[in-house]
Structure formats: structure tokens, C-alpha cells
């Protein structure tokens, strides 16, 4: 097992892609997709060529987060990632109607994820960010074993309920030999827009403490804000300045 927080693998297993970065969470609803999309765009603003793959097959959020409601085209037998906000992206949501549910067993969902990597024309990328489904199931394992990502970022809220599962996710990546680049604490605090009082709705500092205990670097905290929620629904990433620092630490962690 690879120790956490160590140097990343030098090259990704996907031709043309320098680094594969998995964004994961132990639990759903902690803001993993929001972090993945904003981080990808922030990495792009640093001058890197960035792709974002939505591997959250059962709950694809990337088309909404990036404001890409259309369908992905196929050219020369390969899927063409769609461009927005300085990056390119692919999602199962770009291939089917929004009101259709994906009712697949694990292996099919894992193979859909692999198709969006291997049968797509991503071109040359510095980093391909993979927004994984929550938890530690089939898709996460297939991705870790077949694609050998350069590193993983784990998203958690400061709540104990989420941190317990974040710890499991750290352990899973350790077992399959994927270095954990660090932890992002999302919904870290709430500042009341009326009175300015700060409330730690889900607690505060839990992810930093977990990181310190597990030897995983802390990448930064993102507050719970109306602006980020509204920007996410509007498909306008970039509303939270905290992602600039997080992107800087991630690119250092990836050796980019
Ligand atoms: P996950 O991918 O972990 O299931 P999402 O990224 O879909 O989580 O986020 C869950 C919900 O919380 C979404 O409605 C999203 O817009 C909202 N959200 C996530 N992070 C924040 C934040 N920091 N501030 C405000 N809303 C947020």
C-alpha cells in the first residue's frame, strides 16, 4: 500500500494525459462534484490544459455545474468532450435525457466510465480530473486499478458523519496504491448575509484534524455560501476564490 501524501506517479495510464486526478468522497452530498468542477476550472486558469470526467454515473452533475446542457458529439468513432470555462468535459449526462435514470449494475457503470476515457478524444491534457461517485464501490476500484491515477483529492464536510467515511476513502486509496494528495473541507462555515455572524453548521476544522491524524495534507476550506450554490445551479464555476489556493496546492502535489 502506498503511504498517503507521498509523491505522485510520474505519468498517467491514459495516452496524452500527463496526470489523472481522482476527486472522491466517502459520503454523497458533501460537495464533491462542486469541488471537482471548481477545482478543474481553477487549474485551467493556472494555464494548465484540463479535462473533467464525470464518473458519477448515477448522479451526473457536471453538465449543470459547467452549464453544458447539450449532447456530446461523436467524431471518427470517438466521443468529443465539450468545452466550457476554459476546460473540456464529458459526462453520461451529455448522452442521455435528463429525466432518464441510469439503472445499471456496478460493472456496467464502471465500463461506461472506462469508455468515456478510452473511447473519447481528450487530446493532450496536463490533468484529467475524475469526479468519482461517492463511496468505495465498483467504479472507484475499477478506476484505481485500471487507470492508476496520479493522485486523489478527498472532499469532506467537517461533520463527524462525513469524516468517518472520508477516513474510509483514504484507506481505500491507500490499499490500492493511489497517493492521496490531500483533503478539502467543504461547507466549512456559514457567514450570515444579514448579520455577518459566523456559524459552523457542520462543525469546523474536522478535515484538517483528520488530515493531520492520517498524514494527509490539508488543501483548504470552502465556506457554505449562497453565491457558490447559485453559481453551481447557473453553470458558472469560479464563485469561490478559495479554489485558487486549493488549485495551487493540488498542482504542486501533482508535480505540475
Ligand atoms: P456531491 O457531489 O458530494 O454529492 P454536490 O457537489 O452535488 O455534492 O453538492 C451537493 C449540494 O450542495 C448541491 O446542491 C451544491 O450546489 C451544494 N453545495 C456544495 N458545496 C457548497 C458550498 N460550499 N456552498 C453552497 N452550496 C454548496
Detailed description of the structure:
With 256 residues, the chain is α/β, with parallel strands linked by helices. The protein has one domain: 3-Layer(aba) Sandwich (Rossmann fold). Helices cover 34% and strands 23% of the residues. The longest helix has 16 residues, at 160-175. The protein is globular, with a radius of gyration of 17 Å. The relative contact order is 0.22. The structure holds adenosine-5'-diphosphate.
What attributes characterize this protein structure?
256 residues, alpha/beta, Rossmann fold, two-stranded antiparallel ribbon, 8 helices, 11 strands, binds adenosine-5'-diphosphate
Contiguous runs where pLDDT drops below 50 for at least 5 residues: none
Overall shape: globular
Helix- and strand-based class?
alpha/beta
The CATH architecture can be given as 3-Layer(aba) Sandwich
Condensed summary:
34% of the residues lie in helices and 23% in strands. With 256 residues, the protein is α/β, with parallel strands linked by helices. It has one domain: P-loop containing nucleotide triphosphate hydrolases (Rossmann fold), CATH 3.40.50.300.
Amino acid at each position: 500500500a502506498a503511504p498517503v501524501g507521498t509523491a505522485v506517479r510520474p505519468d498517467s495510464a491514459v495516452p496524452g494525459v500527463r496526470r489523472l486526478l481522482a476527486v472522491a468522497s466517502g459520503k454523497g452530498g458533501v460537495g464533491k462534484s462542486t469541488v471537482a468542477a471548481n477545482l478543474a476550472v481553477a487549474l485551467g486558469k493556472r494555464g494548465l490544459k484540463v479535462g473533467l470526467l464525470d464518473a458519477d454515473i448515477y448522479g451526473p452533475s457536471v453538465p449543470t455545474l459547467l452549464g453544458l446542457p447539450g449532447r456530446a458529439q461523436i467524431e471518427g468513432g470517438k466521443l468529443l468532450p465539450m468545452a466550457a470555462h476554459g476546460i473540456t468535459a464529458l459526462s453520461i449526462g451529455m448522452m442521455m435525457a435528463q429525466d432518464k435514470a441510469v439503472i445499471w449494475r456496478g460493472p456496467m457503470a464502471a465500463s461506461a466510465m472506462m469508455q468515456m476515457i478510452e473511447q473519447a478524444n481528450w487530446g493532450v491534457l496536463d490533468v484529467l480530473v475524475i469526479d468519482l461517485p461517492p463511496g468505495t464501490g465498483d467504479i472507484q476500484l475499477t478506476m484505481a486499478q485500471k487507470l492508476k491515477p496520479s493522485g486523489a483529492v478527498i472532499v469532506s464536510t467537517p461533520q463527524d458523519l462525513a469524516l468517518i467515511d472520508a477516513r474510509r476513502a483514504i484507506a481505500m486509496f491507500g490499499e490500492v496504491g493511489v497517493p492521496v494528495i490531500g483533503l478539502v473541507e467543504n461547507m466549512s462555515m456559514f457567514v450570515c448575509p444579514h448579520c455577518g455572524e459566523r456559524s459552523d453548521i457542520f462543525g469546523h476544522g474536522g478535515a484538517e484534524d483528520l488530515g493531520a491524524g492520517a498524514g494527509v495534507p490539508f488543501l483548504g476550506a470552502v465556506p457554505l455560501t449562497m453565491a457558490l450554490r447559485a453559481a453551481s445551479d447557473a453553470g458558472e464555476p469560479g464563485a469561490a476564490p478559495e479554489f485558487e489556493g486549493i488549485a495551487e496546492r493540488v498542482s504542486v502535489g501533482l508535480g505540475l
